[in-house]
Amino acid sequence: MPQQMAIGDFVFGLGSGFPYETLSRKTSGGWSNMDIIASKPFSQNTGQDLETLRLAGKTQWGAGMDKLDALRAMANARTPYVMVDGIGRVWGQWKMMSVQEEQRRVIDDGTATLIEWTLELEEFVNA
User: Which residue range is the domain that position 60 belongs to?
Assistant: First the structure.
C-alpha cells in the first residue's frame, strides 16, 4: 500500500484514509549565545537539540475520529516508534509529544464531519 509515512504500525496516506497535508521539520544547529557587557554576545556550540516534526491534516467522519483515537493510544503507550517514509528511508525513533484535534460541523450523534488534526513528534535519542 502506498504511504506518505508510517510511525510504528500507523500508516499515513491516501490508501489508509488518513493522509497528512503538511509536514514541518525543525533541526537546530546547536548554537547558543552568552551576553557580554559592552560587546556582542559570545557564540558557542553546545550541541544540537532534538529534532521536531509536526504533521497536520484534515479528516472526516467517524473513521477519522477512530484514527485519532489510535494515535492517542500510541501516545499513551509512552514509547518511541520507528518512522519510515514512503520511499523507504528510516527516520529513526520518534516520541509522540501531542495529538491535537479540532472538530467542526458536529452532527446530532456527536460525529464530526470535519476534523483538523496536528501530531507533534520529537526525535528519540538514548545514546
Answer: 5-26+45-123
Q: What is the Cα–Cα distance from 100 to 117, expressed in whole angstroms?
A: 5
Give tens-digit pLDDT for 18-56: 899 999 999 988 888 989 998 999 899 988 889 999 999
Q: Transcribe the chain into DSSP letters.
A: ---SEEETTEEEBTTTTB--SEEEEE----EEEE--TTSPPEEEE--PPPPEEEEEEEE-HHHHHHHHHHHHHHHHTT--EEEEETTS-EEEEEEEEEEEEEEEEE-TTS-EEEEEEEEEEEE----
What's the predicted TM-score (pTM) here? Answer: 0.82
Q: Is residue 93 packed enough to be buried (19+ CB in 10 Å), middle (13-18) or exposed (0-12)?
A: middle
Q: Could you tell me the CATH number of the domain that includes residue 82?
A: 2.40.30
